[in-house]
Amino acid sequence: KHSRRDFLVRFSAAATLISAGGFEKLLAKELFKVQPRVKLRFIVASDAHYGQPKTASKAMAREFVAKANMFHARQPCHFCVLNGDIIHDDPKLMPKAKRIFSTMRMPLYATQGNHDRVTAKEWQRIWKMPVNHAFVAEDHKVLLTTTSNTAGDYLSPDLGWLEAELQKDKDQDVLLFVHIPQKKWTKNAIETKAFFDLMGQHEHVRAIFHGHEHDQDGVYMEQGKPYIFDAHIGGSWGTDYKGFRVVEVLENKDIVTYMMNPDTEISRDVF
């Protein structure tokens, strides 16, 4: 039986390289050597909770956009994913939040979290994409899923939709975004064995990204796959910083990932 420690990899003052062989810590000078080989770079950020009472949610959202755009100016990104809980419960907040986040200077995508209590029809109208959405970036298939509904229930992704998408184009590596964790690594997660059964059947799923747990900025391993968290950019609780994650896929298919805090690169040892 594995302990929680067996599955959790915490980030230290070195970046984390995710390859077929597992995790490898890199010193700054070593990471610098691999940087020119980046093929795909993107930002993932979660839990803005725009409109949450007694928080400076509008200022926090604008701060994130400013810092992400600043990073993008230095290190161009192919896209950004807001991985759930964009707003805090009230559906009328979603268009307002969308206007702020749409000032990002890179293509923007989003997943529905448990506080994003809009209908699928409204989601489509506002975000111009369905609640379950697939797109391709630099030969990588990106899957965005919903894990909630208008009641804010904690749900598993639509496994039928996921299975159908994973059966297509098996020569493409897959990056999967799921707001609510599907294993009780953390206190606000749920248990969905069928989800992990499905992941285990598809080797081309390279990484899974979770939000929801504001105090988590590390990685859990399951079946050799990394399940990656990115803290929070808003809300009333969580890590003592509000930041976002950068993910870089190299030409050799290795993945380098690090958190931004939000100006400094926490995991690169270049402070």
Question: What do you see in this structure?
Answer:
Strand 5 (79-83), helix 4 and strand 6 form a beta-alpha-beta unit. Mean pLDDT is 89; it is low at 1-14. The longest helix is centred in the first third of the chain and has 18 residues, at 57-74. The chain has helices spanning 4-7, 28-34, 57-74, 93-101, 120-127, 159-167, 193-200; strands at residues 8-9, 15-19, 22-26, 38-45, 79-83, 108-111, 133-137, 140-144, 173-177, 205-210, 219-222, 225-229, 244-250, 255-260. It has 7 helices and 14 strands.
Query: What's the count of strands?
Result: 14
Figure out the total of helices.
Answer: 7
Strands in their spatial order, largest beta sheet: 1-11-12-10-9-8-7
> Cα-atom Rg, whole angstroms?
17 Å
Task: Explain the layout of strands and helices.
Layout: H1 4-7, E1 8-9, E2 15-19, E3 22-26, H2 28-34, E4 38-45, H3 57-74, E5 79-83, H4 93-101, E6 108-111, H5 120-127, E7 133-137, E8 140-144, H6 159-167, E9 173-177, H7 193-200, E10 205-210, E11 219-222, E12 225-229, E13 244-250, E14 255-260
Parallel strand pairs: 4-5, 5-6, 8-9, 9-10, 10-12
Antiparallel strand pairs: 1-11, 2-3, 2-14, 4-13, 7-8, 11-12, 13-14
